[in-house]
Design goal:
Elements (H helix, E strand, L loop, with lengths): L2 H15 L8 E3 L2 E2 L8 H16 L7 E5 L5 H8 L3 E6 L2 H13 L5 E5 L7 H4 L2 E7 L9 H12 E10 L6 E5 L2 E9 L7 H6 L9 E5 L1 H11 L3 E4 L12 E7 L10 H4 L9
Parallel strand pairs: 3-4, 3-6, 4-5, 6-7
Antiparallel strand pairs: 1-2, 7-12, 8-9, 9-10, 11-12
Helix pairs in contact: 1-4, 2-3, 6-8
Length: about 280
């Protein structure tokens, strides 16, 4: 597709669904979904791409990757351009259509975008993935979805999950899920008086819940362990300029149990939770 045709098709997408709001994807020549400048999410893209490439232990084109709540498709498109088999799931039609447009322009048969609610993630429907990207969605979920969603990710993950999310700096709210206590804070997503149409039009907020629950760092780490992830690491490099202090990037690995051969007494003991 030549540059003029790409620009014309892009104009039609914008007329129907509005301009791109976050994901600045290079489509070839001088054409970008937003413009010829770094719009913001590209900085995070560098971190996520590097983390996955460093940790996966295999070439990117040997991976099956799931991008949850993929917004306008930047991360999914990037990994697909590196040859990975990628599925992007997004709840809002304007976002998914912009993502599909980019994938179509770039001719990526190894990339599929599906409109669905990520809270309904199911292994029987989507299969298993080497890498699951959970970027900017966890903090849009409320109790109990925020915890059941972690379990659903673990179910479809056969390698590791990258979680980029806000966390609570202070513990202002407590909740219990499956017998375990968690602490965090409430974050307002929508006006309680808003209509379903109002909420659908807010492209950067939750699909329908009026508030969300941000767990503390400790509560999030404990929740990941209880969901079935055997080790969790925080990514500090490559850096993200101006990243808020309450936002972190974690890598949670779905590993196996290793027997402690030199410390059998410790090996017989359960692993403790982190103290809140």
């Amino acid at each position: 597709m030549d540059t003029a045709r790409i620009e014309e098709e892009k104009r039609r997408v914008v007329e129907r669904f509005g301009p791109w709001t976050a994901h600045n994807i290079w489509l070839g020549g001088d054409v970008y979904t937003i413009g010829k400048e770094v719009a913001g999410d590209e900085i995070k893209l560098r971190r996520i791409l590097r983390s996955v490439a460093d940790i996966a232990g295999r070439p990117l084109d040997a991976l099956r990757i799931l991008d949850l709540a993929c917004l306008e498709g930047l991360y999914a498109v990037e990994f697909a351009r590196h040859g990975a088999q990628v599925v992007g799931i997004e709840g809002r039609l304007p976002n998914i259509e912009k993502a599909r447009f980019a994938g179509d322009v770039l001719g990526l048969p190894n990339l599929e975008f599906i409109q669905d609610d990520v809270r309904k993630l199911d292994r029987a429907k989507y299969g298993e993935f080497d890498v699951v990207l959970c970027l900017g969605i966890l903090y849009h979920l409320d109790v109990p979805d925020v915890f059941s969603f972690l379990a659903r990710m673990a179910e479809v993950c056969r390698g590791f999950v990258v979680v980029d999310t806000h966390i609570a700096a202070t513990a202002e709210r407590s909740c219990v899920y499956e017998g375990h206590a968690y602490r965090g804070r409430t974050f307002a997503e929508h006006d309680p008086a808003s209509t379903p149409d109002d909420r659908a039009a807010d492209l950067w907020s939750s699909l329908d819940n009026v508030v969300s629950f941000w767990p503390t760092r400790t509560s999030l780490l404990n929740a990941l362990a209880r969901a079935g992830f055997t080790s969790v690491y925080e990514c500090a490099m490559p850096p993200e300029a101006d990243k808020p202090a309450d936002r972190i990037t974690l890598v949670a690995v779905k590993g196996g149990t290793q027997k402690l051969l030199c410390a059998p007494l410790l090996g017989a003991q359960p692993i403790d939770d982190l103290p809140e």
